């Protein structure tokens, strides 16, 4: 029956982990997948998450099905975290929101909802490059995927002129996907001034902004600062779509906790949109898992756990920032590695786009047992004081050839 099914390629990011696992060298380092590691290289369960789980266990709740759009105690607080406590659409009950299977599920619900109900366009523009899963998510949702310039190879920075040109050349009312903060894979975000210009172009061209916020708090250490772009667009009167994930900022990766929301014109419109979100979700998975949503809801709703969690997110962000400083200093000052490495320090969030070439990344895997994606992206969280010197020396050798 399946004789004509061709073997598919592995996921380019998760495939790196497979190669890493198969390597037996004790010096090996996995900088492929974007999952936080502590200073001992171990996965990190946040203490606030452990406390929330204790409270949940003590409450002896049942395991009944959640409603289709999930735990409303959680989604209300997720919306407040993203849009801000003073958000106008939030206070006016104009935000349609549903729990989702983490960020991926939120993007997929959004893609499917827009493909069915957005009346103006079936075209979505993604930054070049973008997270590898964006293209299949939106294509499989029934949208036509196109790209806008984002990364400038020459400066290892934002191609802001190219970005503006491409958005201005897009058909009116097309959908545009924006990484809210900590752009994956480049680690390069627009500045606040640049976001304001992007907002103006989106307004002029009547584009529909779809924000993917997978790293709120993880980029700068402040959930408020990282929500700047989303809140600015909403203040400017844009109707937006928003995907949220608690995988990174609460370390809830495998619990699959996320949310998808749309701002609307009125509570009446919100109610109609909510009803159609349910119709999109019902035949996909019926209703979402309960445990992770309880954890996130407990933390966001607790006057004790919320500040504790914010400090823990900042701790993760700060550790990553300190690794950026160390790596930059090793390459530039200690090893005098040829090239300009300032981008390692200026990039934001989980990833650094090193500028290493595919042959260099291949050599790093084969000779030094150091694994990263072929585009030269490294997950900064995989570095720690125990392996950073070995990593810098290996990069130095690879660059010198
Ligand atoms: N969007 C971006 C930009 C990501 O980097 C990720 C991966 O972490 C996601 C969405 C979705 O991840 P998850 O489905 O684990 O929340
Ligand atoms: O880019 C990353 O590494 C994260 C994690 O299919 C991830 O976003 C990667 C690939 C994937 C799911 C999650």
UniProtKB/TrEMBL annotation:
Documented EC number(s): 2.6.1.1
- InterPro entries, per database record: Aminotransferase_I/II_large, Asp_trans, NHTrfase_class1_PyrdxlP-BS, PyrdxlP-dep_Trfase, PyrdxlP-dep_Trfase_major, PyrdxlP-dep_Trfase_small
The Gene Ontology biological process terms listed for this entry are: L-aspartate catabolic process
Reaction(s) catalysed (UniProt annotation): L-aspartate + 2-oxoglutarate = oxaloacetate + L-glutamate
What are the names of the required cofactors? pyridoxal 5'-phosphate
Q: What class of enzyme is it?
A: transferase
Coiled coil location:
none
Give the Pfam families listed for this entry.
Aminotran_1_2
Keywords, sorted A to Z: Aminotransferase, Pyridoxal phosphate, Transferase
Q: Which domain of life is it from?
A: Eukaryota
Q: Residues in domain Aminotransferase class I/classII large?
A: 27-394
Instruction: List, alphabetically, the GO terms of the cellular component aspect.
Output: mitochondrion
Per its record, what are the GO molecular function terms?
Answer: L-aspartate:2-oxoglutarate aminotransferase activity; pyridoxal phosphate binding
What is annotated about its quaternary structure and interactions?
Homodimer.
Family in the record: Belongs to the class-I pyridoxal-phosphate-dependent aminotransferase family.
Q: Please, what other remarks does the record include? A: In eukaryotes there are cytoplasmic, mitochondrial and chloroplastic isozymes.
Q: What protein name does the entry list?
A: Aspartate aminotransferase
Q: Which organism is it from?
A: Sistotremastrum suecicum HHB10207 ss-3
